From TrEMBL:
Protein name: transketolase
GO cellular component: chloroplast
Record keywords: Magnesium, Metal-binding, Thiamine pyrophosphate, Transferase
Function: Could be involved in the conversion of sugars, which are a major phenomenon in the rehydration process.
Documented EC number(s): 2.2.1.1
Cofactor comment: Binds 1 Mg(2+) ion per subunit. Can also utilize other divalent metal cations, such as Ca(2+), Mn(2+) and Co(2+).
SMART domains named among the record's database cross-references: Transket_pyr (SM00861)
Protein species of origin: Salvia divinorum (Maria pastora)
Keyword Metal-binding: yes
Residues involved in substrate binding: 99, 336, 430, 457, 535, 543, 547, 594
GO molecular function ontology, one term from the record: transketolase activity
Cofactor: Mg(2+); thiamine diphosphate; Co(2+)
Length: 737
């Protein structure tokens, strides 16, 4: 706890925001003793009115406080915090683009976290047992870049700060894990970051429950997150935080930057709920730090209290002033998303007593932060020694955990995939998917996941495991409830926690509309998430057009860095899982049928990786009369049409086009061997929109599909009415050849 020499006020959250209706502020100068290096009294900064000020919170100048095992000089802390502020101000100003307000307001909590609390190794950003930090309010990314720079991360040098938001820089406009080592997840779309943080905390709790031993706590780290009012307004944040409370994620600590300002102005225009009461109802421990501007002891004590609560996540509401220190723009929307401007930067320098040139880090601040390089290396060495001892005592568990840490797949894992022959019984690919998931779970220790309240319909339960719950987190079936958006984002967090964790999540394919934003971040952040999407077409039948995907296949084919896979039978389903596991930096979407499908001759587990391949062909010299192309449940239709045309003397090639993206990855020679350019007679059939198929069939080919919403009826009737039949394929082929 903080020493008695400091004035400390940590208030438990109250159920209403009315006590501090609008942020203003800065405490009056009579209550603030400032450090001797020149910080102006806070009342020199314009506040909107006295009624908007916080209650006075005195701070002793240069008080030595001992918190969380560290001794810190307040004057040096103030200088460090202002360093963070001005690195952020200067970078945004140089770029003439960015969001300076959040870093200026959140610098105190950022300093305490990175300098006093978090355990990490700057020279190895991927050390396994590090604490994780997520800036859910990703627009304020200069806060994180400034902290990484001070802590000694090689990815963020001074030059990188000067190149903020520029082409090829390591400091993009929002945090990107694939661009900047030290950034855990990609954030920016509000609310997704805190859901990622829930996923990271799930991973820690799950792995700790599986691999820690009474004499060896080998997995022991926290997940910290800063989120703002915008994140709180997004529904995904509530979905994810509801699950975090249900799961009792005691090592998740979220800081709510309570500054009451969004782009449109004061949040009173649209957001007046009691956030703290809501989080208490969600099962969180809630603490209110009333003075986030310079209440360092309050922040420290809140973190210490949060760590003492083991069975709940903690929300620390930190009341801050956006743009703290700016005489004319603090506590206003104008400091949220625009550079301060040269005059206001100069005024802020004078106001905060900061006489330095842009991007300057004072020597005493630099020296103070430099210890993290040696300390971080020592932490990793200590952990490696501990793991070596663990490995001797528990070799089997250590081997599994090491595979999860490194991402190395077990030797021969692919042999676990089931195989099928044309004599195998017909089955829905959703059922075949369950066979594959259960086979893989036995050989891939990092595989875990679940469904958005549709497990019995998506067929995603792992039979060898129970449910991941608060008191049994070692289990691998994750019950997400009806929360598709947060389900996807939580899985992103799990995937980005460790290379060997392979999360999957499931719902009906049409409900990817609820989670598309998270799936896009999966693709952008190179997170290997397996999206198991069943009921993939009008073939689901009577549920009707609300549940029948039409445009969804095309929409995911348009999304970069994601694999859209639509297997036709058991072998292709196994092949789709093989591809999904092997693609470590691409998420995969598996579109699976509700209706039974036959096991087709010519399909192949291995050939799925080609994206498109020939399953039957009676032509010679790579010169078929016509090429019939199908995906998923319609490959059977194409195959039957091919048989009928051959009986009429045609040379017909039938091609399974399970993944456009994988086919695009192949060499020109391979593509020519499947779809020779000279053969213009091509017919495709797919129970979805024909949009995009001209790329495959060409201007002279024919695409059979559905370019309207579906209907409610038994599947065979719908297929017939929409013209998805063998007869339609045969007729189209005859028109072309």
């Amino acid at each position: 706890m903080a020493s008695s020499s400091s004035s400390l006020t940590v208030a438990k959250a109250v159920p209403s925001r009315s006590a501090f209706p609008i942020h203003g502020s800065f405490p009056p100068s009579s209550s603030l003793s400032v450090p001797s290096f020149g910080l102006k009294p806070a009342n020199s900064i314009t506040a909107t009115s006295a009624a908007r000020r916080h209650a006075p919170i005195p701070i002793r100048a240069s008080a030595a406080v001992e918190t969380l095992g560290k001794t810190t000089d307040t004057e040096l802390v103030e200088k460090s915090v202002n360093t963070i502020r001005f690195l952020s101000i200067d970078a945004v100003e140089k770029a003439n683009s960015g969001h300076p307000g959040l870093p200026m307001g959140c610098a105190p909590m950022g300093h305490v976290l990175y300098d006093e609390v978090m355990r990490y190794n700057p020279k190895n950003p991927y050390w396994f047992n590090r604490d994780r930090f997520v800036l859910s309010a990703g627009h304020g990314c200069m806060l994180q870049y400034a902290l990484l720079h001070l802590a000694g991360y090689d990815a963020v040098k001074e030059e990188d700060l000067r190149n903020f938001r520029q082409w090829g820089s390591k400091t993009p406009g929002h945090p990107e894990n694939f661009e900047t080592p030290g950034v855990e997840v990609t954030t920016g779309p509000l609310g997704q970051g805190v859901a990622n943080a829930v996923g990271l905390a799930v991973a820690e709790k799950h792995l700790a429950a599986r691999y820690n031993k009474p004499d060896s706590k080998i997995i022991d780290h926290y997940t910290y997150c800063i989120l703002g009012d915008g994140c709180q307004m997004e529904g995904i944040a509530n979905e994810a935080c509801s699950l975090a409370g249900h799961w009792g994620l005691g090592k998740l600590i979220a800081f709510y930057d309570d500054n009451h300002i969004s782009i449109d102005g004061n949040t009173e225009i649209a957001f007046t709920e009691s956030v703290e009461a809501r989080f208490e109802a969600l099962g969180w421990h809630v603490i209110w730090v009333k003075n986030g501007n310079n209440g360092y002891d309050e922040i420290r004590a809140a973190i210490e209290e949060a760590k003492s609560v083991k069975d709940k996540p903690t929300l620390i509401k930190v009341t801050t002033t956006i743009g703290f220190g700016s005489p004319n723009k603090a506590n206003s929307y104008s400091v949220h998303g625009s550079a301060l401007g040269a005059k206001e930067v100069e005024a802020t320098r004078k106001n905060l007593g900061w006489p330095h040139e842009p991007f300057h880090v004072p020597e005493d601040v630099k020296k103070h932060w430099s210890r993290h390089v040696a300390d971080g290396a020592a932490l990793e060495v200590e952990w490696n020694t501990k793991f070596a001892e663990y490995e001797k005592k528990y070799p089997e568990e250590a081997a599994e955990l090491n595979a999860i840490i490194t991402g190395q797949l077990p030797a021969g894992w692919e042999k676990a995939l089931p195989t099928y022959t044309p004599d195998s019984p017909a089955d829905a690919t959703r059922n075949l998917s369950q066979q594959n998931l259960n086979a893989l779970a036995n050989v891939l220790p990092g595989l875990l996941g679940g469904s958005a309240d549709l497990a019995s319909s998506n067929m995603t339960l792992l039979k060898m495991s129970g449910d991941f719950q608060k008191n049994i987190p070692e289990e691998r079936n994750v019950r997400f409830g009806v929360r598709e958006h947060s389900m996807g984002a939580i899985c992103n967090g799990i995937a980005l926690h460790s290379p060997g964790l392979i999360p999957y999540c499931a719902t009906f394919f049409v409900f990817t509309d609820y989670m598309r934003a998270a799936m896009r971040i999966s693709a952008l952040s190179e997170a290997r998430v397996l999206y198991v999407m069943t009921h993939d077409s009008i073939g689901l039948g009577e549920d009707g057009p609300t549940h029948q995907p039409i445009e969804h296949l095309a929409s995911f084919r348009a999304m970069p860095n994601i694999l859209m896979l639509r297997p036709a039978d058991g072998n292709e389903t196994a092949g789709a899982y093989r591809v999904a596991v092997l693609n470590k930096k691409r998420p995969s979407v598996l579109a699976l049928s509700r209706q039974k499908l036959p096991q087709l001759p010519g399909t192949s587990i291995e050939k799925v990786e080609k994206g498109g391949y020939t399953i039957s062909d009676n032509s010679t010299g790579n010169k078929p009369d016509v090429i019939l192309i199908g995906t998923g449940s319609e490959l059977e239709i194409a195959a039957k049409a091919g048989d009928e045309l051959r009986r009429e003397g045609k040379a017909v090639r039938v091609v399974s086009f399970v993944s456009w993206e994988l086919f695009d990855d192949q060499s020109d020679e391979y593509k020519e061997s499947v779809l020779p350019a000279a053969v213009k007679a091509r017919v495709s059939i797919e129970a979805g929109t024909t949009f995009g198929w001209d790329k495959i069939v060409g201007s002279e080919g024919k695409a059979i599909g559905i370019d309207r919403f579906g209907a409610s009826a038994p599947a065979p009737k719908i297929y017939k009415e929409f013209g998805l039949t063998v007869e339609a394929v045969v007729a189209a082929a005859k028109q072309l050849c």
